Amino acid sequence: MPSRRASQSVVNGRTGQAGPSTPVSDVPPAALPDRQRSLPETVISVRGLRMAFGDFEAVRGIDLHVSRGEVFAFLGPNGAGKTTTVEILEGYLKRTAGEVSVLGVDPQHADSDWRERVGVVLQESTVEPDLTVKECLSLYAGFYGSPRPVDEIIELVGLAQKADVLGGNLSGGQRRRLDVALALIGDPELVFLDEPTTGFDPSARRAAWDMIAGLQALGKTIFLTTHYMEEAEHLADRIYVLAAVGEGTPQTLGGRDHAASEISFTLPTGVGAGDLPEGVANAVTREDHDRVELHSDAPMALLGPLSAWARDHGYELADVEVHRPTLEEIYLRLTEGSR
Amino acid sequence: MSVAAAPQLQYRRRSKGALVLHQLRYDSLAFLRNRQSRFFTLALPVVFLVIFCALFGNGTVHVAGGTIKESTYYVPGLVGFGLIQAAFSNLVISVTAQRDSGVLKRRRSTPEPAWVLIAGRSLTAVGTAVVIAVILMLIGSLAYGATPPGRTIPAIIVTIAIGAVSFCALGYALVTAINSSDSAQPVIQMVMLPLYFISGVFVPSSQIPHWLTDIANVFPVSHLQKALLEAFNPHTVGAGFAWSDLLVIAIWGAAGLVIALRRFGWVPNTR
Fold first, then answer.
1. Does B1 touch chain A if contact means CB atoms closer than 8 Å?
2. What are the tens digits of pLDDT across the range A205-253?
3. CATH of domain A2-254
């Protein structure tokens, strides 16, 4: 994911660490803020989590584990219990059963010291309509024991031009940035982002991704829920799909790394599928007029003979395409039964 | 793999008193910026005072100990009205809106103890109530000659303090009964408008049928009106403390506090 790695360096001014792609645990301890130095690795640990509202079981047995410095994407269809789970982890809801530990504390018994270390971006925007960006952040900064400077956070989320605008007059995307700013003002170790870019236009979403990647570069652990597969793929180190209980990196989720590739191209005029070299012709799974599709677990074994054949006969095959299953396709397959 | 232990660090936290004041500062700023808050708590009581005194101010009304000008009667009643608008009505509207929009939930995610968040907002409501009461009394005194005798000033201060705190607690209690911020305004009108009419705030109590005043006397509005009138009434002898009325107001306030403590929620009621 080169774009993501590159973007991390944009906003990692605070720790000033070299090598944007360096995992946080590899950074010399001196480069990290005191609070994050020499701490063990597990940030969130959940075992057998269940939550029932009356007769309705919103969450049916979740096990998950999030390590320090990780961007953890928590996906699932609407109604699968995503927000309920997040609210249990944030300490808003008391669970029905299971073990939950967040930063070494059961969030059900969270105290002020724990809340100092956790930043929350709720699903709905929650800016104060009658305070300016700067005033709102100053209000929240006062709630924390060791907040970041207000101006620094405003800069970090890209609201410097809007510092004196009332919360009620911000656009949707700007409100969301202020939400994120409010979550960061207390300098938390762990940030919950519940659908942070819903309703963003593509360029605002890109900017938000850069910002979130920047948070990881600052050593924060990020628990992200989203409906956008592209977002999960771009940002996440690991993905957990609720309701399907699929877990993996964006590259390996649901056996994506082993799934067959699809190669397709248009045959030159007067050439039939039978004229293809033998190994290639055997892999043809679909023929639509002169358009041919091949499937293979080992696409290079087909592409080699195919290109040699094309070169020998002087064919261009200008529209050849190699398609890997997208994360969205994998996700839809994993969650098929629960929709 | 070991589980992260809570780090041994001390956060430099401000004292709770400083935090309450910190929140008071921003909550009052937001209050002053909000047009609806300004209108319903600052403008409306003044407008009502001017209208009622202009319409009926020159008549006389029977009160304990004799008769007084109607304008002298309306000033304490509308001081009570202004106090209730600020400490109760506006509080209910703004807190339900904050709850529904997630602002309360968000504030609760900070290290601040719940009581500090409540105390800061309550102090804004009580402070606003005191300010509007003072403004109305100044207008009453300068424009309508309704100046209370100096010896009853302590009674007025105590009555306003008990009234503001009690109605603030009642406001939090009512918030727990309102499911959506859309219904806050109608619910308040439904509850308060009839009470204002039968409690002697808009119409002198001597002109209200007994069965209605009997109903009104169950509720705190009429007792606030009576306690303030006692202090403003030139025929009152002594310091003007209406202890039994103050007791009824305080009991209502305490009941409101109990309900609020038991049922107050930080997240939207619709789940």
1. yes
2. 888 888 888 888 888 999 999 888 889 888 999 888 886 556 677 777 7
3. 3.40.50.300
